[in-house]
C-alpha cells in the first residue's frame, strides 16, 4: 500500500500537470484569438483582401467624348457605313484644351481614316485593335508632343 506521503506527492504532481495543461491551453487559445483578430481587422473592409496589398500608383486621367461619327466605308459596290462614339483619354488638362481647339482637325482625320476602311478590316479582334492603334497615332499626329492622347475607347461601334 502506498504511504500517505507518497499519495500526497502523486496528488501534487497531478495538480501540477493539470495546471500546466490548462495554462498551455489558455496560451494557445490567446495566441489563436490574437491572430484571428489581426487577420480579421486587416482583411475585413469593403475592399476585401485587396486592402492588404500595396496599391499601385494610379495616375489621374481625363476623358473627352467626341460627337458621334457616321462614316461611309470604302467598300466598293456596297452602301455600308460605320457609326461610332469615341472617347479619348489623356493625362493632362492641357491635352483636353488642345483637343477642344483642334476638334475639327481630329474629326476630319477620323472621318478620312474610317472612310478608307472596309468591313473586312473590322472582322477580327486583332484587326480592330490595329485600327485602334492606327487611329491613336493619327490623332496624336495632330496634337503637340507634350499633349498626347493615352488611349481611345469606342463607346459604340455599329456597321450597317
What does this 3D model show about the protein?
It contains four helices and four strands; from the N terminus they run αβββαααβ. It is an alpha+beta fold. The protein has two domains: 4-52; 62-159, Band 7 domain (Tetrahydropterin Synthase, Chain A, 2-Layer Sandwich). A hairpin with an 8-residue loop joins strand 2 (69-72) and strand 3 (81-90). Helix 3 (103-115) runs antiparallel to helix 4 (125-142). The longest helix is centred in the N-terminal third of the chain and has 40 residues, at 4-43. It is rod-shaped and about 115 Å long.
Quick summary:
By secondary structure, the chain is α+β, with helices and mostly antiparallel strands. It has four helices and four strands, in the order H-E-E-E-H-H-H-E.
Number of strand segments: 4
What's the architecture of the largest domain in CATH terms? 2-Layer Sandwich
Name the poorly predicted regions: none
For this structure, the CATH topology of the largest domain is Tetrahydropterin Synthase, Chain A
Shape: rod-shaped
The main pleated sheet reads as:
4 strands, antiparallel
Summed up, the domain count is 2
| Amount of beta strand | 15-25%
Number of helices: 4
Structural class: alpha+beta
Helices and strands, with pairings:
Blueprint: H1 4-43, E1 62-65, E2 69-72, E3 81-90, H2 93-101, H3 103-115, H4 125-142, E4 149-159
Antiparallel strand pairs: 1-3, 2-3, 3-4
Helix pairs in contact: 3-4
